[in-house]
Amino acid sequence: MIIGKVVANVVSTEKHPHYIGHKLLMVQVLDAYGAPKGKPLLAVDGVQAGIGDTVLVVDEGGSARSVVGDEKAVTIRTAICGIIDRIDIEGNT
Amino acid sequence: MKLGKVIGRVVCTKKLPCFDGLKLLLVQPLDHLRMEAGPPIVAFDTVKAGEGDLVFFESGKEAAQANPNGWFNPADAAILGIVDAVNAEEVS
Predict the structure, then answer these.
(1) A91 to chain B, minimum CA–CA distance in Å?
(2) Would you call A7 and B88 a contact, using CB atoms and an 8 Å cutoff?
């Protein structure tokens, strides 16, 4: 799982049937200290996240399909499975 | 998944049979401010997208699963939706 921050919501009408009924959010990947790392990606929302939330993201097909609860949605790969309240790192103030 | 913009079409006559009937498009990945994020890639289309459209695309084995000719094929990027709007707020 990776840590990210929701930076935008994405609206799409014409889409693959597997994505119907799912909210799409754009997530900027972060490192453990909250600094942006790499390019943003799109994820299906499984936890009612919103813009500004720090979230837990899975970028693996089987995990993402279990988040959306549809094991036949084989084209879904990235999903948000948690909203992070806090990250404690030893030795970090 | 990533956000992208269709910037061109790729025509390919000699190709594997599993790519028959697929439209190949050149997609520029974008970030939430619609700035370019990485080099363009070639993706096959499942939603009748066209040049200039804002789309979202999947990469990896999940993309191959969207191929109507069957799941066992070498495609590694597929356009899965046309994006109507990206609502980004400045967050601190």
Answers:
(1) 25
(2) yes
Domain containing residue B9: CATH number: 2.40.50.220
Q: What is the pLDDT of residues A78-91, one digit of tens each?
A: 999 999 998 888 87
B45, B23 contact by CB (below 8 A): yes
- For the stretch B67-91, pLDDT in tens is 999 888 999 999 999 999 999 876 5
* Residues of B in Cβ contact (< 8 Å) with A28: 32
Count of domains in chain B? 1
What's this model's pTM, rounded to 2 decimal places?
0.84
**Is B75 inside any structural domain?**
yes
Residues of chain B numbered 20-59 and touching chain A (CB < 8 Å): 29, 31-32, 37-38, 46-48, 56, 58-59
Report the topology of domain A2-83.
OB fold (Dihydrolipoamide Acetyltransferase, E2P) (2.40.50)
B62 is in which domain, residue-wise? 2-82
CA A61/CA B6 separation, integer angstroms: 25
- Report ipTM (2 d.p.): 0.77
